[in-house]
Amino acid sequence: MKRRIRTSTVVGSLLFGALLSLGPAAQAESNAAARPSAENRVLNLNGKSDFVQIADSLSLHSFTNAITIEAWIKAASFAPDQGLINCVLRKDVSEGGEDFFLRFRTINGAPWLEMSPGLDVGLVRAEHDFQVGKWHHLAATYNGSSIVAYVNGAEVGSQTASGSMTIDKEDLFIGKGDPEYSSGEYFHGQLDEIRLWNVARSEQEIREAMNSRLTGKEKGLVAYWNFDDGTANDLTGNGNHGLCPLVIGSAKPDAKAAAETVVKPSTAQSEPGESGRERARDRVVHFEEGIIREIPRVARLCDGLNIRTENVDIGGCKLYCEQEGQGTPLVLLHGGPGTTHHGFHPCFSRAAGFARVIYYDQRGCGLSDFEPGAGYSLDQAVDDLDRLRKTLGVDQWVVLGHSYGGLLAQCYAMKYPENVKGLVLVCASTGLHGQSMPSRQGEFLSQQERNKMAEIRKVSGLTMAQLVYNNFLNGDWKRQCYYKPTREQIAQIASYEWVHDNNFNEVMSRFASEVDLTGSFAQCPLPTMIVEGTWDMSWNTDKPRQLAANHPNAQLVMFEESGHSPFEDEPVRFFGVLKDFMGTLREAPALQLQYWKGSILKGE
Hints:
single chain, alpha+beta, Rossmann fold, Jelly Rolls, eight-stranded antiparallel beta sheet
């Protein structure tokens, strides 16, 4: 690889979710109002980009000539224009490919409920006084001869229909529909108690159970999400899980509750994110009193995962390694220099549904050996990675590098291109350092926060973990995080994500600053995807364009509501994009690969 001495250094990586008239309708609303206001959680969707994706499964193919879809919904808004759609649930979101769906369509200025068990079978459309800010229970059934729609346990529409349902292998989506129509058909508001049955439930069965939690073992129940454990896990045991950060606390759905008034801040600059989470660009200032020396004890995120762990001997050094999932190997290269694999948890467990995910700590970092060998260097780190590949018995893998790990990934691809099935660069250090500066990391920090962190740095005797913890509590998270982490997350970052040997960061930053990759990937035949967050403040605003220009054959994907870690900030979209990329990989032509590798060697 070409080298040229640079005076700038690599930017560090992250340091850091009417029954019938007055009869059954009144009864249903009375029952709903009587539901206790115990702790409850709901799915909160912003109507622009939020959704839950559930991988296709054997259980989702159990529908033949019967289905029931149920959900509690509280809309924050409906699509304003004629014919536009807000989708509650849909399997296969490709145009014209829907297996079944439950959604709203705006007709003459009002939302109408629509349900279809497949457009070849039929569709029911029903009008009701759906109010923004008010809970409504939706249900729709198909029994082989008719489709019936219910609101709050009462029938509101029916349509004759017949035929067997057709279920393909595409994924199921909650809160999203056809990406090519109605700006994605996203649902804006809250969802709860979503249920899928492979039987047609009766009106009485729907009404009697709509206000109760299920056990998950009910006959005919295929999938059930109530979000009360803070996840989008399926409670039936069928494994229709969706990893989701969009679950929030809320009172239980109540069909009689009055619409809520939403008051927004007066300026866009201070308006919180659609998800309700504080963002760095909200510029909220917060201080802690004094210095906190006792960091809360928190478990490693790895400890709560069903994951394979081992210390892999690569010869003269053991690298800590974790693996989960099956399929195409995907190795994750953490940033820093000097962070650890822990920063990829728990997000990348989502990728375990379509890949064999391999986490590891680089030599001198985290739980791997602090063994310099001949001396820490970028070349050593590249060779370590390939020795890990051989020891794990991997032929080719997709190499994903985050931040500084993206520079390491590029260097690895140049030296061992025949072992790379695909290259993914996530908010990656470019190897074009002079062009991608200056950093914008301080843009959202107030002067008061800067002064506070300067005071923290002057306190003697603080460990690295204590420094990270106190700085993050006092605003330092805004440098690279998009959403404000919780205190527990800050404790995990401080304890487990910035751990390395003495002088490791300094030594590796020096080696990284000497690398010049300008023009090195002009002829690269490896499938490459570049992922960038619009609000990644590590570099200037031209950085995504500059990196993409140096990889002219790569795909560039921008994430508009993300900072330095899009896999944390927009996980549903990120892992959908990653799955699509890995599902379309093709072997790079051998002659092109040889030509490119030869051109690199000549350029040294």
